[in-house]
Amino acid sequence: MVSFKELGLVNTREMFAKAIKGGYAIPAFNFNNMEQLQAIIKAAAETKSPVILQVSKGARNYANQTLLRYMAQGAVEYAKELGWEHPQICLHLDHGDSFELCKSCVDFGFSSVMIDASSLPYEENIALTKKVVDYAHQYDVTVEAELGVLAGVEDEVSSAVSHYTKPEEVVDFATRTGCDSLAISIGTSHGAYKFTPEQCTRDPKTGRLVPPPLAFDVLDAVMEKLPGFPIVLHGSSSVPQEYVDMINKYGGKLPDAVGIPEEQLRKAAKSAVCKINIDSDSRLAFTAAVRKVFAEKPAEFDPRKYCGPARDLMTELYKHKIINVLGSDGKA
Ligand code: G3H
Ligand code: 13P
Ligand code: ZN
Known about the structure:
With 332 residues, the protein is of the alpha/beta class. The chain has helices at 13-22, 34-47, 57-63, 65-81, 99-107, 122-137, 170-177, 216-225, 241-249, 262-269, 280-296, 303-326, and strands spanning 26-30, 51-56, 89-96, 112-115, 142-147, 152-154, 157-159, 181-184, 201-202, 209-210, 231-233, 273-278. The protein has one domain (4-326): Aldolase class I (TIM Barrel, Alpha-Beta Barrel), CATH 3.20.20.70. The chain is 45% helix and 16% strand. Strand 9 (201-202) and strand 10 form a beta hairpin. Helix 2 packs parallel to helix 12 (303-326) and helix 5 (99-107) packs parallel to helix 6. The longest helix is centred in the C-terminal third of the chain and has 24 residues, at 303-326. It is globular and about 60 Å long. Bound molecules: glyceraldehyde-3-phosphate, 1,3-dihydroxyacetonephosphate and zinc ion. Glyceraldehyde-3-phosphate (G3H) binds at residues 30, 56, 58-59, 94-95, 155, 190, 279.
């Protein structure tokens, strides 16, 4: 058993309370490799933003759980080296799908876990979430739960349609589970294709897809039922068109990729939404930079020469999100 406190990590309790009060949101960035982690920490340290490092089950399988945990521990030291005296870094399990996985992360030094039982029937979601909460809280590890199902793929849970969170369920759910934060479904989804062209209109000038607005009425109703309770938005990548264009220009194929417009995330960040999950945008930045080097310098075979530019572009992206979208700069 390793406590997250020994690793210099923090849970989400204080982060979220401050974020709700201050009208901003904490960035939750997924990482799978060293370059992503370096970019996240550099961006957070340079902007003095609290940050949540997210590890999915897939990331654990890809990178090895032991290595990831030591990387997170190393991230705290790296942050200090960059001049961030008291780094506020949370290590969070993203989309945990079983009690065993959540327990293993708690035991392994994670400071926060998500139990995503949103695809289960309501009572089963409550029972599993409560079991995780009861275990995690013994070690002061905070727990995110989910009500409502996002369209697209949630790790191994797939759903073709989005089922918005039912505001009438949230008080009962939060009370009976004791969860610390709640991910809700208001129209966001995972990946780089958040809406079909049929769901969008087209900007006549640029020809680009314009997605439909998020269901802010559902968010408002949830906040009315649970005043001051921390709300989480998954699937919040904006799918920047500059990266999509770069990828397509340099041999990729991402037709009609579309995300959540930043002005909608800005609006959400000012509300009780205090954690905003971003993964796909980082994948796009990484891929765009690598493709550019491959296309322009076909003789290059030193990974540092293409992972380096990818890392720089991701750092720029994370800083942009922190400063211009979430407003979490200067809060740590
Ligand atoms: O919500 C999903 C995250 O983007 C993690 O994705 O399961 O491919 O690591 P992954
Ligand atoms: P995106 O695919 O929109 O980046 O969402 C990531 C996410 O929700 C991770 O849990
Ligand atoms: Zn997610």
